[in-house]
Design brief:
By secondary structure, the chain is an alpha/beta fold. About 45% of the residues lie in helices and about 15% in strands. The strands form 5 sheets. The protein has a 7-stranded mixed beta sheet with strand order 4-1-5-6-7-8-9, with helices on both faces. It has a 6-stranded parallel beta sheet with strand order 11-14-15-16-17-18. A 3-stranded mixed beta sheet has the order 2-3-10, with no helix packed on it. Helix 13 links the parallel strand 17 (about 350-355) and strand 18 (about 380-385).
């Protein structure tokens, strides 16, 4: 069968550079490749199906072009993949456009948001035939075999006789080595990593891609939906399989790769084997990872650096222990300082810190402590983002109980915590404290870490115009711009119009139907959370 896979991007959070062509003729774009649909494409092709991919990062494939290709090639199934709540309105718009143009083609949604809200999404977006929950590899193969009668396809939500049907759940796949490497040649795109200071994973401007060597994270951070999506489990590919893919990527001409694992630094023996495999194969490809500061694998930082790990990114979140405890990070400020220090002393070239501001119960003093900590740590890059609450997270459930969000009316939305939580600082205060904090941070870095700062700037100047580097440096000292950006205005207009449509559809649902789905969703989340609390034992996962 012919299948179209489309990765939906949120234009508010994804800015395209000027379109350029790589030496191989492919379009160069900044950002992370859509590894989800790439992985599915390779599985489909291995099974004998035909697969065509679209990534909305490609300026040559707007919705209109995708619709033309659908009419021309007449696929049997179109899968729309999107990561979060922010992209959901755009996925709905595209689904409605596809359905208006072709009444026969089968449509499916996949991704974290769709998985965690499957029945509700099916009710709100009847244009979509199937909602695929969880891992998609085997699910998609099963669906294509039974597309006209999907009653036995585990993990699928669909409709029959006007009623939402949720098939039996699909067990989490533990044997990840069985799947082929992602289809990285199926898109006419070469991805390069972005460089600004407030963007994670500063790797290089060489040909760039991503890998996923493990799935899931069992820690209970209140703002994260990953433990819910993965049912509190952590699953990993074997070290041998990871090294084999790295070798393949180097042979294909990739210069750097970023591991999009939710928590790479979890299993020391596996990490050690990956590093040894890289050395044994004499690979030179550079790589970066994310991990927690309380990782048991910190003693392997020297081995990772020797195996060409250039970037380590830590979820630090706050410089206040009170806020870390409030977010249930289960880490201490001492562990933060130790992890960053150990990574730099081991020779990791770029150590990045993720921070959040606008947290529940956060004071101005807490925010200042965060910027003071970021200043004193030997971090190379850093990002400070306003904390948002998404459905599926423990924080969302807390806000429902406190009456700050309505599960019925707000399930498909997301909120900055500061806009709904009275314990948060007002938005204008957060922005001003952040601006002043960045000023202090930059001055401190220049005065106390001049060599580190110079090396970072020199690296930037290799890939960016000097005026852009200068703007990055002076940006914190500029006043806050008034009003929304053009991208924000457009996004809000589109989302507002779409939400009005969605609200109208909600009013057409019977109260009993909506309440039933809500109760089912609540009980399922409670089950997963309870299981996650007891799943902190993480034995080695071997491939078949």
């Amino acid at each position: 069968m012919r299948v179209f896979l489309i990765h939906v991007r949120d234009p508010q959070f994804y800015a395209l550079p000027a379109k350029t062509r790589a030496k191989n003729g492919r379009i160069r774009v900044m950002g992370f490749p859509p590894i989800g649909i790439m992985s599915l494409s390779s599985v489909l092709k291995q099974a004998g199906h035909e697969c065509v991919m679209f990534d909305q990062a490609n300026p040559d494939t707007p919705n209109e072009v995708i619709l033309e290709e659908i009419n021309r090639q007449q696929p049997a199934l179109i899968g729309l993949s999107f990561l979060s709540t922010t992209s959901y309105p755009y996925a709905k718009i595209l689904a409605r456009q596809i359905r208006a143009a072709n009444s026969n083609v089968k449509l499916a949604f996949g991704g974290v948001f769709a998985s965690l809200n499957a029945a509700l999404v099916k009710l709100q977006c009847p244009e979509v035939d199937f909602i695929c929950k969880g891992d998609g590899e085997q699910l998609l193969l099963d669906l294509l075999e039974r597309i006209d009668d999907p009653a036995d396809v585990a993990g699928l939500t669909w409709a029959k006789d006007g009623h939402v049907v949720q098939n039996s759940g699909r067990p989490m796949e533990r044997h990840l080595d069985q799947w082929p490497f992602p289809d990285r040649e199926g898109l006419p795109l070469d991805f390069i990593e972005s460089m600004p200071l407030d963007v994670p994973a500063v790797l290089s401007m060489e040909r760039f891609t991503t890998m996923q060597t493990s799935r899931g994270c069992p820690w209970p951070c209140v703002f994260c939906d990953i433990p819910i999506f993965n049912e509190g489990k952590w699953r990993a590919r074997s070290a041998q399989h990871v090294v084999k893919e790295l070798k393949y990527l180097e042979e294909c001409g990739y210069g750097s790769v970023y591991f999009v694992d939710d928590h790479f630094l979890l299993q020391p023996k596996r990490i050690e084997a990956i590093c040894q495999g890289v050395m044994d194969e004499k690979l030179s490809i550079q790589w970066g990872i994310e991990g927690r500061v309380d990782s048991v694998a910190q003693h392997l930082f020297p081995a990772m650096a020797k195996a060409h790990c250039r970037t380590v990114m830590f979820g630090i979140e706050s410089g206040s222990q009170k806020i870390l405890d409030r977010l249930k990070k289960e880490q201490t400020l001492e562990e933060v300082a130790t992890a960053v220090k150990n990574a730099k002393q081991a020779g990791i070239e770029i150590v990045h810190g993720f921070f959040t501001v606008g947290n529940p119960d956060e004071t101005v003093e807490d925010m200042n402590a965060t910027f003071d900590l970021a200043s004193k740590l030997p971090l190379d890059t850093f990002g400070f983002n306003r904390l948002c609450v998404y459905r599926g997270t423990p924080l969302w459930q807390e806000y429902v109980k406190r009456g700050l969000v309505s599960e019925t009316a707000d399930w498909y939305k997301y909120f900055k915590c500061s806009t709904i939580d009275p314990t948060c600082l007002p938005g204008e205060v957060i922005n001003e404290v952040r601006r002043q904090g960045l000023k202090r941070l930059f001055v401190y870095k220049i005065l106390h870490y001049p060599i580190q700062t110079f090396r970072l700037l020199r690296r930037f100047l290799r890939f960016m115009p000097a005026r852009d580097v200068a703007y990055i440096l002076i940006k914190p000292f500029l006043g806050q711009k008034k009003g929304a950006t053009k991208a924000e205005v457009l996004s809000r207009a589109v989302e507002h119009a779409d939400i009005k449509d969605a609200a109208a559809e909600l009013t057409q649902m019977t109260d009993d139907m909506l309440q039933s789905v809500m109760e089912e969703s609540r009980l399922e989340r409670l089950r997963i959370q309870q299981e996650a609390e007891g799943s902190r034992e993480l034995p080695m996962v071997h491939s078949r």
